Amino acid sequence: MTDLFTGAICMGSLLIALFFLRFWRDSGDRFFLYFAASFFIEGLHRLYSALHDAGGEDSPLHYLIRLLAYGLILWAILEKNLPQRGRERDRR
């Protein structure tokens, strides 16, 4: 039953990554690219965990992969909300 849920989470993460890639292609905003990369990493991590691990998600590698994925989301949000130097010059 656990493998079923892991597979569903994997499929959902990869599908969300495809949606964000489509939004990035339409808008050209890196915000969507970072989100797509984050969900793609998370989906591949779930796939790897389902196929190769025997439930041992307490290794540091698993936490580092998740930290990378969540760090990309935080970076995208920060980059979107921090003022850009080029934008301030254009306003003047």
Written account of the structure:
The chain crosses the membrane at residues 6-24, 31-48, 60-78. Pfam families: DUF5985. Keywords: Membrane, Transmembrane, Transmembrane helix. This is DUF5985 family protein. InterPro entries: DUF5985 (IPR046027). This protein is mainly alpha-helical. Helix content is 85%, strand content 0%. The chain is built from 4 helices and no strands. The protein has helices at 2-27, 30-52, 60-81, 85-91. Helix 1 (2-27) runs antiparallel to helix 2 (30-52). It is flat. The termini are far apart. The model has no long low-confidence stretch (mean pLDDT 87).
Percent helix:
over 70%
Structural class: mainly alpha
Stretches where pLDDT is under 50 for at least 5 consecutive residues are none
Biggest sheet features: none
For this structure, the quaternary state is: single chain
InterPro entries: DUF5985
Protein name: DUF5985 family protein
Keywords: Membrane, Transmembrane, Transmembrane helix
How do the helices and strands line up, and which of them pair or pack?
Elements: H1 2-27, H2 30-52, H3 60-81, H4 85-91
Fill in the keyword field for this structure.
single chain, mainly alpha
Task: Summarize the entry for a quick read.
This protein is mainly α.
